[in-house]
Amino acid sequence: MYSPLLELCPRLGRALRPLPLVEGPTAVEPLARLSARLGRGALWIKRDDRTSPEYGGNKPRKLAWLLAQALARGRRSLVTAGAIGSHHAVATSLFGRRAGLRVCALLTPQPVSPGVQENLVSHVALGTEVRLVQGTADLPTALARELVRKALGGERPMLVLPGGSSPLGTLGFVEAGLELAEQVRAGACPRPGAVVVALGSGGTAAGLALGLALAGLDVPIVGVRVVPRSWLPPVLPRLLAQAAAALLARHGLPSALRAAMRLRLELDDSQLGPGYGHATTAALAAIERLQEDERVELEPTYTGKAAAAFLARAAHAGPHDGPLLLWHTFSSTPGPGRHAEPATHLRLPSGFHRFFGPVPAARNDPA
Ligand SMILES: Cc1ncc(COP(=O)(O)O)c(C=O)c1O
Questions:
Q1: Distance from the first to the final alpha carbon of the chain
Q2: In the chain, is it the N or the C terminus that has fewer CB atoms within a 10 Å radius of its CB?
Q3: Mutate-to-test residue for ligand 1 from 52, 94, 204, 330, highest number of ligand atoms within 8 A of CB
């Protein structure tokens, strides 16, 4: 299995081997038409929408480690959380089930769109035990209660943090950073001036920054915030990268601690708009631009906002800024909800039915 992280840190592989969920390295491709249109230097994309033919995006990289740990600990089930349209909840359920694990997902409301409905209804086909939690602030208590409830029933599920952003899950993106550095070294793409990626729970950007620092590639990761500061305090991605570095150091890679001192991680707060899951005009315009020029499909909650920041940077780039790389994180393979029969949502617990009134059809089927 291709794993630049295990090559660098073989002792880690003796403790835990990630499940082979990711078909890597994912391609790096030039965005030729878009670059020509903007005329401000080269634009590139990292195709993590194709990490897996079953369900791609950024989740398989984290779940490869998290599910391996659940199995190594002899767990039979997982408890996780997210918003009702969470890609993380869908991916955890899909890959968890493949690994023989039952999945319970606590889900909170968010603005409804066809993509959100599609992800929510995926849980019917996946057999996820879904529970509605009224607000994000209630999640910690609801998670604790669910774990206790299950423990009283004799079950010992593993908790998978929202977005899979624990230090262990973050290792999936340390590996992704090493993968990009190797592609630059091999000439598959030029050294980027910056890498732009959506920032939700933080593990993706944190892992990438640590991976590039470990590889000695001095390139900033720009995490485009799609959640409010109250959900993700600005210090958290850096702390997550440091915790991932400490984990690697415990497995014989002390250079990870030095790399964590050299992180190049910037947060871009310009695209959040009214809040998580609210489409912005800039995100919708960016989705359309990438779709028209490059046939790249994005959605408005994460990748549309990252692409809006990417285009804004490209528009202001100077001759010495170097190529910009957009890290795609949204699965190009839809979840099982895409092909659900009408009224499948009625098989969800009744509290979820109110999310299935008519919603305006949005371009590119936003999630
Ligand atoms: C499509 C997509 N992109 C980006 C992200 C953000 O990644 P992270 O939570 O690691 O910051 C998510 C998280 O759920 C996502 O679903």
A1: 32
A2: N
A3: 204
Structure-token pair, residue 90: 């869908």
DSSP structure class, residue 79? E
Give the pLDDT confidence of 302-327 residue by residue, as tens digits: 999 999 999 999 999 888 889 999 99
Q: Do 167 and 92 contact (CB within 8 A), yes or no?
A: no
Cβ(331) to ligand 1 under 6 A? no
DSSP state of 191: P
Sheet architecture: strand order including 158-159: 129-132, 102-108, 77-83, 158-159
Whether 327 lines ligand 1, by a CB cut-off of 6 Å, is no
Which candidate, 198, 80, 81, places its Cα nearest to that of 135? 81
Q: Residue-wise over 219-256: b if at least 16 C-beta within 10 A, else e?
A: bbbbbbbbbeeebbeeebbbebbbbbbebbbebebeeb
Asked if residue 364 has pLDDT above 70, the reply is no
- CATH of the domain spanning 4-58+165-327, picked from 3.40.50.150, 3.40.50.1100, 3.40.50.300, 3.40.1280.10: 3.40.50.1100
Q: 159 has which bridge partners?
A: 79
**Per the structure block, which two tokens stand in for 4?**
């630049």
Taking residues 206-229, what's their average pLDDT?
98
